[in-house]
Amino acid sequence: MPFYQRRGRIPAKRHTVLERDGGGMYYEELIGNEGFRGASTLLYRLHRPTRMLEATLLKRLRWEPHGDRSLRPYHLRLGRVPAVGDLCLDRLPVLYNQDIAVTVSRPRTTGEGFYRNGQGDEIVYVARGDGVLESALGDLTFGEGDYLVIPRGLVHRYRLEGDDHLFLVLESRGVVRVPARYRNDYGQFVEGAPFCERDIRVPENLRPRDETGEFLIYTKMHNALTEHRVQTHPFDVVGWDGAYYPWAFQIRNFEPVVGMIHLPPPVHQTFQGEVFVVCSFVPRPFDFHPKGVPAPYNHSNAQTDEVLFYASDEFMSRKGIEFGSLTLHPDGIPHGPHPGKAEASVGAERTDELAVMVDTFRPLHLAKPGLEYNDVDYLRSWLE
């Protein structure tokens, strides 16, 4: 993130002693990315973070691609996924390539263990439900419509409220950033950006835990989950400062850009990965040219696979979708509004749609587990 934060007790200079009240010192840990050149945070701990008791391979995460390689659009009704397992450990594989993995989770329980994704940054979209994302840096309260951005390597866990949750999870091998064009040379959001620092929520309520015993951390790395048993509570931090932390952004705080005629999806961009982008489609007024067609035009967007996750039952250019639907329109064939949707949009004043779009610049593979929710009639849904 482009702005610095600090919480709790820290010394005046980096890498100097932070003394305990009763004598001794706190233990410093640096966490960051891009080989000491990217964003980082310095943490000051009650105990050494290296006190590991045991490491055991829990399971490998082998994703099997769909065997049918014919080029076609897909519609997956992921809102019908049953509640099962843990939010972090039991995600349903949907789409993937070497850059990004798309999963969904409808958790039944939250375990007592902690989670750390060592191989990717995560963007977690909360389609339904409420809770708290806990980490050593503090608590981050979330609710329906929130994006949670969690940098790799950060130990965390979810405390869910209620019993009905649905999460869309995007795992990125590259660093997740705010689009460069939204920021100036100093990292500050520029005037005209569709959101700014005031819209971003960061961890609060730092509560260091001075506990010893055995604590489970499930670490994802090398497409596998390893169970690490450590001797001290992972949230034993008394202070931290830096720019490497989980943060939240509410999709409804995205400020849509509206033009006289239809504007292409880049105006809705919210995040950028190394080779993909994430866009937010939110309620907004339609284009205002008297003969404008607000619905998107048919397009063949070469070099891009387009994924849309529908967070409501309405979408201006689609028929037959529902809450939790996900569509894939692959590079190589045209796609566009369903019959009648372009005509119906002429003269309309606004849309109340809510959706998350992911455009990838390398082809995606469809994972077999997601096919259980496939709408087999979607291919022919443009026939009149």
Description:
The chain has one helix at 341-345, and strands at residues 5-8, 27-32, 40-45, 52-60, 74-77, 92-96, 100-105, 114-117, 121-135, 138-142, 146-150, 156-172, 200-201, 212-221, 224-232, 237-242, 247-250, 269-272, 276-281, 284-285, 305-310, 325-329, 350-351, 355-360, 365-366. The protein contains 1 helix and 25 strands. The protein has 384 residues and is mostly beta strands. The chain is globular. The relative contact order is 0.21.
Features:
25 strands, mainly beta, Jelly Rolls, 384 residues
Give a summary of the structure in a few sentences:
By secondary structure, this protein is mainly β.
Walk me through the topology.
Layout: E1 5-8, E2 27-32, E3 40-45, E4 52-60, E5 74-77, E6 92-96, E7 100-105, E8 114-117, E9 121-135, E10 138-142, E11 146-150, E12 156-172, E13 200-201, E14 212-221, E15 224-232, E16 237-242, E17 247-250, E18 269-272, E19 276-281, E20 284-285, E21 305-310, E22 325-329, H1 341-345, E23 350-351, E24 355-360, E25 365-366
Parallel strand pairs: 8-14
Antiparallel strand pairs: 1-16, 2-3, 3-16, 4-15, 5-22, 6-7, 6-25, 7-12, 9-10, 9-11, 9-12, 11-17, 13-17, 14-15, 18-19, 19-24, 20-23, 21-22, 21-24
